[in-house]
Amino acid sequence: MKQKILEYILLTSLLVFIFIFVVGILSYGVGFYIGYANGNSMSPEINDGDFAIVSPPRDIDEGDIIIFKVQNEYFITDEERIVHEIKENVTTNGDIQYITKGINNDKTDQEMGYPLIEPNHIEGKVIYIIQV
Length: 132
Description:
Strands 1-2-6-3-4-5 form a 6-stranded antiparallel sheet, with no helix packed on it. The chain is built from 1 helix and 6 strands. The chain is an alpha+beta fold. It has one domain (31-130): Umud Fragment, subunit A (Ribbon), CATH 2.10.109. 20% of the residues lie in helices and 33% in strands.
């Protein structure tokens, strides 16, 4: 009985993954992937250890959860990837930039020293969260 339940769970998980893969290909083209959350800045929506299915960055707007790269002198590594929500669109000299924030953070990323996020910093848009 336990083996049947386990087989059912594994088969269901595989079918869900295949469905998400097909929908991703049809809706967004190639280029989506699964990312891993490290930290709780997006809690309770995304928790440490959760997985996120990320599509190419199309139709980005306020309220979207995105994954982006930043370079910041406060970090040991040259580049860091962050998953946060877009709080506001800002247009400067005709160029759009974004203010971002972790749901669980008190301040925006820009209030904490990050630069405004430019479209070329955005690697993808979170379209689905797999909570573990």
